[in-house]
Please model this.
Amino acid sequence: MLDRRQAPRLRSLKGARILFNPHWPAIDCVVRNLSRAGACVEMKGEFNTTLQFDLTFLQENETRTCRQVWRQGSRIGVAFA
Model:
């Protein structure tokens, strides 16, 4: 399998929240691995996400704008904008 990542990812178990806009509820998730360029995010259950959204890291109180790159079941790969 060809690895097209721009930067190596490190394992992670960070709590996070996916935010679409103020009118939609946030989705709790876990960041499974992380790099400066993107992350793998796992949700409980399968949700239809938009292609672009904000990802808030709960412990760091940091928000990053993301775009979905791939999806497999309850996991999505994102690139940081």
User: Anything to note?
Assistant: The chain has a mean pLDDT of 87.
